[in-house]
Recover the amino acids of this structure.
């Protein structure tokens, strides 16, 4: 069966998460993605180390499905390799500020001189315009600037998401944009720049709160895990753990009130809408907390599920890996990697397709695993390759 992006070649110069995971999603769909790293390896290869050689968990996730080569693009010989690579490519991925792209010869104008219909997918903290364009940044910076950390914490104690949602969100949106650019090129023959930003992603995800502030000026403060737009929406302690519940809409609130033995609350003007329930979340949350405290996790989840009320146990990473739904729904693929003692649970492609399944993952490449193979495809002979390796170009 032909895969969706079969025949598309992507050169991935990405770093850390936002660029490389964009390439990963394209590789999942069948693109030939060539990951280019410095000869000593990129920093992201060694983040959250899990192998005996220091390779990290992030790398096992974002390197899957790719071929890997090493290259120093600042050297003259390295520039020639880049030129030949780009000449065979449909997409180049680089998540660096615009000045760095120019320095490395990976800016759009330079790439177009090599391949006029190239698609350049870039990612940075702040984008190519505005006073912060030359600044670098990471996921936490975007979380902080977006207002998300302020509203996720409590007054005087901001809190960030442990999972880097700005990075992964930017990667997913960049992959979406790249697919759109591929479709555009199929129609017109023209390439273009696809630009994702960490701050742009964070603002999109937090946009409702920002609009509310602009229109109403409420000056909301953080409330931890308690929601402010509906109730009960929070994490609650049970006799043996924690559960989280989210009630949105009148129908759900009616089922919840009846389950709590509080049907009269359905006529209470304080609880007449989602927002009013959110405004009075302390009252509603206290009732839910008392109900949960009398029951075990299993009982709470069972009774809420029977009443068709969304809920879930608050799981540790270890508990999640053993969760019956996660296991039965095959939400991870077990992938071997040299030097890792057990198969690593790599999260499956996050979208499922009825006619073009992604299939089994190919493990992330070891450092420079496919360098010789790729260079040979580009027309370099064994003597050229040996000379470049001796000179530290690869």
């Amino acid at each position: 069966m032909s895969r969706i992006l079969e025949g598309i070649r992507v050169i991935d110069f990405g770093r850390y998460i936002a660029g490389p995971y964009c390439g990963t999603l394209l590789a999942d769909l069948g693109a030939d993605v060539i990951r280019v790293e410095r000869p000593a390896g990129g920093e992201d290869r060694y983040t959250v180390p899990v192998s005996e050689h220091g390779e990290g968990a992030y790398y096992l996730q974002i390197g899957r499905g790719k071929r890997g080569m090493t290259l120093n693009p600042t050297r003259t010989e390295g520039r020639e390799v880049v030129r030949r690579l780009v000449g065979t490519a449909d997409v180049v991925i680089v998540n660096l500020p615009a000045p760095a792209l120019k320095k490395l010869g990976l800016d759009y104008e330079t790439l177009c001189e090599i391949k006029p219909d190239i698609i350049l997918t870039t990612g940075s903290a702040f984008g190519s315009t505005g006073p912060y364009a030359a600044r670098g940044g990471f996921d936490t910076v975007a979380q902080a600037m977006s207002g998300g950390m302020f509203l996720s914490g409590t007054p005087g104690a901001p809190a960030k998401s442990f999972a880097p949602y700005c990075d992964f969100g930017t990667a997913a949106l960049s992959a979406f944009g790249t697919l759109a650019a591929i479709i555009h090129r199929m129609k017109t023959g023209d390439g273009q720049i696809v630009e994702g930003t960490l701050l742009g992603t964070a603002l999109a995800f937090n946009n409702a709160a920002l609009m509310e502030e602009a229109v109403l000026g409420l000056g909301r403060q953080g409330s931890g895990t308690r929601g402010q737009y509906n109730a009960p929406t929070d994490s609650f302690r049970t006799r043996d753990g924690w559960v989280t519940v989210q009630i949105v809409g009148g129908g759900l609130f009616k089922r919840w009130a009846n389950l709590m033995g509080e049907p009269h609350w359905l006529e209470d003007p304080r609880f007449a809408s989602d927002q009013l329930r959110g405004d009075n979340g302390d009252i509603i949350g206290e009732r839910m907390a008392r109900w949960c405290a009398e029951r075990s996790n299993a009982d709470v989840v069972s009774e809420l599920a029977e009443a068709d009320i969304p809920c879930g146990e608050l799981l540790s990473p270890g508990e999640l890996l053993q969760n019956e739904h996660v296991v039965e729904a095959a939400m991870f693929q077990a992938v071997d990697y040299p030097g890792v003692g057990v198969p690593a649970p790599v999260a499956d492609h996050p979208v499922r397709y009825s006619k073009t399944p992604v299939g089994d993952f190919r493990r992330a490449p070891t450092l420079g695993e496919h360098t010789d193979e790729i260079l040979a495809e580009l027309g370099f002979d064994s003597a050229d390759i040996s000379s470049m390796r001796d000179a530290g170009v690869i």
In short: The mean pLDDT is 95.
